[in-house]
């Protein structure tokens, strides 16, 4: 059990959680057609931060990836008193590729550039920027990194080692990653269509998000991270489980820790990447877990797949769904899947919400599930 | 859980040698990691064609886990979900990232290589091979910090989330490689208690 004291989303739809949430609720999408992202010159649909977004930030030799983290953490920590320099405050980072975008422009890979690709070094630099004296924790677990980082932070707080965890994640859209997903033929030909019969792949996106977790409840009403679990399909390194059983296992364990049942869940913030395999697997997992009739939402159509940041970005959206009493629409949704169709909203719906389930899955067969509750 | 946590077994791979519980079980001739890995795999005498598709980091982890977990089967329903994998690493998938970057610049990007440009894929390979479906995490640190890992893993046991855990360190970049894996779980047998000091001792030996 940990409490959400503050949060931020830095995305193409807004530099704050509120702005991004409002845009997603209004059905907007940051996914657009881009030329010049792929070396072949082909057009690709992706969600990118606007050029010059970091102009107002102190550069100080930080990379775009590190600046995204800094901006996001800055906004979150401005909302609440945090003893950033205390030994009782730990930074927990989530990212899949960190500064990998620096490779795109490099003429050659020098030893200095190699050093900059270290995820732990980026984390140390960002934590130090905020005056942290604790070695930061860095979680890199493919697309569940954001969810995993939150769970790790919750556990660190529960162990009594820390009072506060600043959990931040980010990933950039880079040629390195785009070409890889293109090689997998996993990119959508247009704006992606989560949980749709005619879904055809992902859009990549870039964003950063931060959640400040505390062991002690803050003053006033608070959302709790009440439970969570991670599992592995033990099946295939790049394709999901055929049955969804292992994601269902994680969902069940998360609910058990929160002392809740599937019936208590009010909505699901899914991974919903819009690949044929992922969305089918998730629907099966939801059916196995008993949440298949709960309102489901995917943010991937609005913000793209933000990889290591996704679990954090979408957890913040889930927290806001709870506090704003608003079920989010799924941008890009077209026609229901033929098997295991899920209740997907096309427009925002007001609703009294108390329990949200966040799910994520990633390369390497990993799955994560978190339960957020509004007191 | 009535028994205290013990280090049940350890495996270390470095400098062309493989040790289990401090005893050499394999020594390759001085060679590249790729040649060492091929020889070490052959010495296992197992059928696992997927090994040859893995990148070097995944091969390193596969070999260490194969020796560490010899004779253990986690596929029983109760055990699979209650076995964890908690590893730490410094250079991520940089070895493969650089190979992929070369491919990319030649317009030859291959999905088979791209999938290994994530450091946690080695964890996935271990889970597939040994049927492990429980908590699996990869932490990125600049150097191995047993204290943080031991605290985290011990907490998982204390919260009764797992009954066994594969922990340790794995890193590979070019010809510099090190795998140090241990299996920890509650046991009444005489074995090293699971403490930071004992893990550090095993790591540096």
List the helices and strands and how they pair.
The complex is a heterodimer of chains A (375) and B (205).
Chain A: E1 2-10, H1 17-25, E2 31-34, E3 44-47, H2 64-77, E4 89-94, H3 102-105, H4 111-116, H5 119-129, E5 137-139, H6 145-158, E6 164-171, H7 175-183, E7 204-205, E8 207-214, E9 223-232, H8 245-257, E10 267-269, H9 276-289, E11 296-297, H10 300-303, H11 310-324, E12 326-327, E13 349-350, E14 355-362, E15 366-374
Parallel strand pairs in A: 3-7, 4-5, 4-6, 10-11, 10-14
Antiparallel strand pairs in A: 1-8, 1-9, 2-3, 6-8, 9-15, 12-13, 14-15
Chain B: E1 5-14, E2 17-20, E3 23-27, H1 33-44, H2 56-68, H3 77-80, E4 83-89, H4 94-105, H5 111-114, H6 121-130, E5 136-140, H7 146-158, E6 164-173, E7 176-186, E8 192-193, H8 196-204
Helix pairs in contact in B: 1-2, 2-6, 7-8
Structure overview:
The complex is a heterodimer of chains A (375) and B (205). Chain A starts with a strand and ends with a strand. Chain A is an alpha/beta fold and 375 residues long. Chain A is 30% helix and 21% strand. Chain A folds into two domains: 2-214, Peroxisomal Thiolase, Chain A, domain 1, CATH 3.40.47; 223-374, Peroxisomal Thiolase, Chain A, domain 1 (3-Layer(aba) Sandwich). In chain A, helix 1 packs across helix 11, helix 2 packs parallel to helix 5 (119-129) and helix 8 (245-257) crosses helix 9 (276-289). In chain A, the strands form three sheets. Chain A has a ten-stranded mixed β-sheet with strand order 5-4-6-8-1-9-15-14-10-11, sandwiched between helices. Chain A has a three-stranded mixed β-sheet with strand order 2-3-7. The model of chain A has no long low-confidence stretch (mean pLDDT 96). Chain B contains eight helices and eight strands, in the order βββαααβαααβαβββα. In chain B, 38% of the residues lie in helices and 26% in strands. In chain B, strands 1, 2, 3, 4, 5, 6, 7 and 8 form an eight-stranded mixed β-sheet that branches. Chain B has a single domain (5-204), classed as Peroxisomal Thiolase, Chain A, domain 1 (3-Layer(aba) Sandwich), CATH 3.40.47.10. The model of chain B has no long low-confidence stretch (mean pLDDT 95). The longest helix of chain B is centred in the first third of the chain and has 13 residues, at 56-68. Chain B has 205 residues and is α+β, with helices and mostly antiparallel strands.
């Amino acid at each position: 059990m940990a409490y959400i004291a503050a949060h931020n989303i830095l995305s193409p739809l807004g530099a704050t959680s509120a702005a991004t949430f409002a845009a997603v609720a209004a059905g907007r999408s940051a996914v657009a057609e881009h030329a010049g992202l792929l070396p072949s010159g082909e057009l690709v649909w992706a969600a990118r931060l606007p050029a010059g977004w970091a102009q107002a930030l102190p550069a100080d030799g930080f990379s775009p990836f590190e600046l995204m983290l800094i901006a996001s953490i800055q906004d979150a920590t401005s909302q609440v008193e945090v003893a950033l320099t205390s030994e009782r405050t730990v930074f927990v980072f989530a990212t899949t590729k960190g500064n990998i975008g620096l490779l795109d422009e490099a003429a050659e890979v020098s030893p200095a550039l190699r050093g900059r690709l270290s995820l732990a070094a980026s984390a140390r630099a960002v934590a130090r920027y905020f005056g942290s004296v604790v070695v930061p924790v860095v979680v890199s677990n493919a697309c569940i990194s954001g969810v995993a980082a939150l769970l790790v932070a919750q556990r660190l707080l529960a162990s009594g080692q820390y009072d506060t965890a600043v959990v931040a994640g980010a990933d950039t859209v880079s040629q390195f990653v785009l070409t890889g997903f293109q090689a997998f033929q996993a990119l959508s030909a247009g704006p992606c269509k989560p949980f749709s019969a005619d879904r055809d792949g992902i859009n990549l996106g870039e964003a950063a998000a931060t959640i400040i977790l505390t062991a002690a409840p803050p003053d006033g009403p608070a959302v709790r991270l009440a439970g969570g679990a991670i599992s592995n399909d033990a099946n295939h390194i790049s394709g999901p489980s055929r049955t969804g059983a292992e994601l269902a296992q994680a969902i069940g364990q998360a609910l058990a820790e929160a002392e809740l049942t599937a019936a208590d869940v009010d909505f699901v913030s899914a991974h919903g990447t819009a690949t044929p395999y992922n969305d089918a697997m998730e629907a099966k997992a939801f059916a196995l877990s008993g949440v298949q009739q709960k309102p489901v939402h995917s943010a991937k159509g609005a913000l793209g797949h933000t990889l290591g940041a996704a679990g954090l970005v979408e957890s913040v959206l889930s927290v806001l769904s709870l506090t704003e009493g608003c079920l989010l629409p799924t941008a890009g949704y077209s026609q229901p899947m033929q098997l295991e169709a899920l209740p997907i909203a096309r427009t925002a719906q007001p609703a009294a919400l108390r329990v949200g389930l966040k799910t994520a899955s990633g390369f390497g067969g990993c799955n994560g599930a978190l339960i957020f509750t509004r007191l | 859980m009535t028994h205290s946590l013990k280090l049940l077994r350890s495996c270390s791979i470095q400098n062309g040698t493989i040790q289990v519980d401090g005893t050499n079980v394999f020594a390759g001739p001085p060679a590249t990691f790729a040649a060492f890995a091929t020889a070490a795999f052959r010495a296992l005498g197992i059928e696992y064609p997927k090994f040859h598709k893995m990148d070097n980091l995944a091969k390193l982890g596969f070999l260490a886990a194969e020796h560490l977990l010899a004779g253990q089967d986690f596929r029983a329903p109760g055990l699979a979900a209650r076995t964890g994998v908690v590893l730490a690493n410094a250079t991520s998938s940089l070895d493969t990232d650089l190979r992929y970057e070369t491919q990319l610049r030649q317009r030859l990007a291959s999905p088979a290589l791209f999938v290994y440009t994530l450091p946690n894929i080695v964890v996935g390979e271990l889970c597939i091979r040994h049927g492990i479906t429980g908590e699996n995490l990869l932490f990125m640190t600049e150097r191995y910090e047993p204290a943080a890992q031991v605290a985290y893993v011990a907490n998982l046991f204390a919260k009764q989330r797992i009954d066994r855990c594969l922990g340790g360190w794995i890193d590979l970049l070019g010809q510099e490689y090190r795998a140090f894996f241990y299996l920890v779980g509650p046991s009444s047998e005489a074995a090293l208690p699971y403490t930071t000091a004992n893990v550090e001792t095993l790591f540096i030996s």
